[in-house]
Amino acid sequence: MKIVKTTTLVGTRIHQREDQWVTDRYRSVKADIAVVVIEADDGTTGIGEACAYGNPLQIADWVQWYAPSLIGREVDDLGIVPAPTGSALVHAVGSAHDFAVAGIDCALWDLRAKQAGLPVRRLLDERASAEVDVYASGGVRYDWRADPRTLIEDVVGYAADGYSAVKIRLGTYWGWDGVTPERFLRLFDEVRREAGPGLGLAVDGNSRLTRADALTVARGLEERGALWFEEPIAKDDLEGYVELNRSVGLRISGGESFTTLEQFRPWIERGAFDIVQPDAGVCGITELMKIGRVAERSGMELIPHSWHNGLMGMANAHAVAALPNASMLEECMVQGPLKWDSIVGGTPVKEGRIDLGDAPGFGVEIIDDLESRFPYVEGHYAVEVYRRDHAA
Ligand SMILES: [Mg+2]
Hints:
Layout: E1 3-14, E2 22-23, E3 26-28, E4 30-40, E5 45-50, H1 56-70, H2 92-116, H3 120-124, E6 131-137, H4 150-160, E7 165-168, H5 174-177, H6 181-195, E8 200-204, H7 211-223, E9 229-230, H8 238-247, E10 252-254, H9 261-269, E11 275-276, H10 280-297, E12 301-302, H11 310-322, E13 328-332, H12 338-341, E14 343-344, E15 353-355, E16 365-366, H13 370-373, E17 382-384
Parallel strand pairs: 6-7, 6-13, 7-8, 8-9, 9-10, 10-11, 11-12
Antiparallel strand pairs: 1-4, 2-3, 3-17, 4-5, 6-15, 14-16
Helix pairs in contact: 1-2, 2-10, 4-6, 6-7, 9-10, 10-11
Bound molecules: magnesium ion (MG).
Magnesium ion (MG) binds near residues 204, 230, 256 and 305.
């Protein structure tokens, strides 16, 4: 089968106030989507969601740029997927390129699986099971100045919905309100008390802490039995991660922005992480599987990053199902209706689990009217927030 057409669908939903999320000095104001669609000459179409942080219009431009090298080529030719550059961390243009490549890669997996009449996970590993555990990723709406206890309400709500694990964040910029590691750990204790001892709790530092504060938080989280501590310090501080991971028994995770195995390699070889977190929408399924297998040989787990919409969630879920060292899928709890209303088919997440079923491909389709129902709005997804005592 030959490729006859490639397109990119883009969309936006402006967040309702309750879906806006905050981290550090930023407030998200919208959710975006970018979906690569690849059509074969037998009428089959493959779909792959690219990480929209790369800017949906730039992603669409890159897919268009690659169209001449895809059209007319065999769907099964693995050599047609462009190579990611591994520059996502460095500059925005690089990230759009690699995210577009990830979308192309995912769309081709969906297309090949549909032509084979199999779910993607079975193409990746024929023994892969259909059931995948899902953790609620949220705890990202609380403002230390307004009412940090809203964090507790969020977590208790997710636990009530049946999730057995939840990931939380650090809230608004600590410098505005004199927040310390100790104060954060006291809030963590309150969350634990009200959510109950059975709930697994992970913390995402969003690369915000100094090495010293990260060590204090990590030791506190270890005492409290947290599941893992994600990206506590700057994303490029390899030495800092190696030292931190050596200093604590708590599992340290990261790598959500890396788009190639080669970016992960020094971090894996030096034991900077216990858990690697590539994302199919960021690096593609092909690269994610390679990263997962190398991580497995080093005794590391893979828990993918997955912070966009339902189609990306399905791509990551199929990879989790196929990798023996992957146990859980992330679900963004603040994405709003774009997350699940952008797709049809499949079964919803129920009590912290998803059944991928036996439908071919990723098992879902994009809604027919995506671009009219969720018209794309240009601009960055987040705005910087200023306060009276805003530090430079
Ligand atoms: Mg993260």
